[in-house]
Amino acid sequence: MARRVFYSFHYVPDNWRASQVRNIGAVEGNQPAKDNDWETITKGGDKAIEKWIDDQMNGRSCVVVLIGTGTANRKWINHEIVKGWNAGKGVLGIHVHNLKNSEGKTSTNGTNPFDHVTLNSSGAKLSTVVKVYDPPGATSTDVYAHIKNNLEGWIETAIAIRAGTAPTAITALE
User: Fold this and answer.
1) Alpha-carbon span 56 to 117, nearest angstrom
2) I need a surface site. Which of 15, 35, 86, 150 has the fewest CB within 10 A?
3) 117: burial class by Cβ within 10 Å (0-12, 13-18, 19+)?
4) 4: alpha, beta or left, given left = phi > 0 and alpha = psi -120 to 50?
5) Which among 13, 3, 17, 8 has a CA at the least distance from the CA of 140?
C-alpha cells in the first residue's frame, strides 16, 4: 500500500533535491505550493502558513524531513515536525545533501533537525526516538537509488516507532 506522506524541507536550497525524492513514486507526497501560490500564502502571515501546513498534512501518515545544509532549527520545519508528531504521524529524516541540485552540485551535510525538538514528558530530544538516514553512495545516482530502494521501509518503520511511542507531545526548543 502506498502511503501518503508530507515532505518537509528548506525550500530555496533543497527544492530540486526534494522534487527528486517526491518523484520516486514509492509513496504519494504532498504537492508543493508553486512560487506564486507560496507568495500569496506567506502574505497572509503565520496563520495562513499554518493553515496551508494543516491542509497539506491532512490525511498523511508520515512526515519525511529532507535534511539539507540549512534545514535544522528553521521555524516552519520545527512546526511541521511538532505538528506531525503531535498528530500521531510517523516522523523520519533523510539527508539529501549528496543529491545534485539543478546546477549539478551537492552540498554539505546538515545537522539533525530533531535535536531542536524535545519530548514534553521527559525533555529528551526527539532525535533519541526518530530515525535519520544518511544514504551512502559515491554519486548522486547511487544516493537516489538507495533512497528509492529504502523509502517505503523507512516510512513503515517511522509509523511503527510512532505507534509504539507513548502519546507524548513535543515542542520545539527556542
Assistant:
1) 21
2) 35
3) buried
4) beta
5) 17
